[in-house]
Amino acid sequence: MKKKRNINLTGPISSVFAITIGLLFGFIVLLFCNASQAVPGFLTILTGAFTHGLKGVGQVFYYATPIILTGLSVGFAFKTGLFNIGTPGQFIAGAFGAVYVGIVFTSLGSVHWIVAVLVSAVCGAIWGIVPGLLKAFFNVNEVIASIMMNYIGMYAVNWSVKANKVLFNSMRNESKNVAVSAQIPKMGMDKLFPGSSVNGGIIIAILVVLIIYLVLNKTAFGFELRAVGFNREASRYAGIDEKKSIVFSMMIAGMISGLAGGLLYLAGTGKHIEVVDVLASEGFTGISVALLGLSHPIGVLFAGIFIAYLTAGGFYLQLYEFSTEIIDIIVAVIIYFSAFALIVKSFMAKTARRRQAKSERKGGKGE
After folding, report:
1. Cβ atoms of 122 and 97 closer than 8 Å
2. Are the beta carbons of 284 and 88 closer than 8 angstroms?
3. Please, which residues have CB within 8 angstroms of residue 18's CB and are 6 or more apart in sequence?
4. Longest C-alpha distance within the chain, in Å?
5. In what helix (H) or strand (E) does residue 168 lie, and over which residues does it extend?
6. Hey, where are the domains in the chain?
7. In terms of Cα–Cα distance, which of 75, 116, 111, 306 is closest to 208?
8. Cα(261)–Cα(305) distance, rounded to whole angstroms?
9. Could you count the other beta carbons within 10 Å of the beta carbon of residue 188?
10. Cβ atoms within 10 A of the Cβ of 11, count?
11. pLDDT digit string (tens) for 236-292?
């Protein structure tokens, strides 16, 4: 039992190691930029989210909501042997679906926001299923197909918003406000975190995390998906339909990313789809969240909150004469080093196996 526990801890330890390296690197960047303010600036990154008490904590959860889901999308695909780099396209497709329903279908009443959220998930699933079909039936690399779908999604949404007078605000070059009935209810979050932007979206995100965890680890369907990810040939020999598993994996991953877009743009915080040729940053941040969380649903949840915490704290760096661009660089470097967690995990797993093999050989000689 003791050996098993040590091996299982390699994942969390490697993530903590990666976070430490990232934070140290960020501190070095601060020293080079402004040595006299580096220490208070670094402390602000670590504690800035608590500057306004519960309001600050609520903002962390608000920033975490979309990246938890995009991270979960990437992590889910990783668990099934696929690399879903198409999260930006799926995210904006879901956002467009939510915004369209939120602006056009104003007669839905109390279920308006529910329908808008569901449509965002469906749009994301449609955008995710295309690389899945290409991978399953034509063996097209899902990374290449997903990247292409990112740009198709971005330009398609830009054109759709701009060409539709009902959706487009020409004065601001962005989509119009969604109806109040389409905004996600606070669900008590405004009382827990007064003054913050957080709403029921964080509750939905946590529920989705728990559902994906149960699907992957407690159902036959999840076992089949993971089996295909581990070894497709062996899965095929065991009677598992690998093509169906690939298609469903990408579809579910796309659905989660699309839902992330819906939750963000229906939050009622003044967020609009801007008609600019830039891929959604929340999608790419999700890749880093998945890497830091080691693709485990619960790990992704905490990784998303952690990165959102650093982001919220980083906003206050301007008080110490650090520009906004430097804040972005520091956060990006910290996120980048999270990818190192996989290398560390692999190294620690190999080291543990070698020690186990040595102990077994010594035990055999002793007998």
Report:
1. yes
2. yes
3. 292, 337, 338, 339, 340, 341, 344
4. 83
5. strand 168-169
6. 1-34+327-367, 57-321
7. 75
8. 17
9. 11
10. 20
11. 888 999 999 999 999 999 999 999 999 999 999 999 999 999 999 999 889 889 988
- From 90, 122, 109, select the one nearest 182 (Cα to Cα): 109
Q: Which CATH entry fits the domain spanning 57-321: 3.40.50, 3.30.870, 3.30.300, 1.10.3470?
A: 1.10.3470
CB 47 within 8 A of CB 316: no
- Burial class for 361, CB neighbours closer than 10 Å (0-12, 13-18, 19+): exposed
User: pLDDT of 13-45, one tens digit each?
Assistant: 777 877 888 888 888 988 998 888 999 988 988
Kindly state the tokens that stand for 170. Answer: 């020409």
Q: Which residues are CB-contacts of 232 (< 8 A; sequence separation ≥ 6)?
A: 81, 242
**Alpha carbon distance 350, 356 (integer Å):** 10
CA contacts within 13 A on the Cβ side of 123: 28
pTM of model > 0.85? yes
Provide φ and ψ at 121, rounded to 5°.
-65, -40
pLDDT tens, 40-81?
988 988 888 888 889 999 999 999 999 999 999 999 999 999
Judge whether residue 3 has pLDDT over 50. no
The Cα 269–Cα 159 span in angstroms is 24
Q: Which two tokens stand for residue 197?
A: 């932007």
DSSP string, 178-216: PPGGGSPP-TTHHHHSTTS---THHHHHHHHHHHHHHHH
Q: What is the DSSP letter of 51?
A: T
In what helix (H) or strand (E) does residue 174 lie, and over which residues does it extend?
strand 174-175
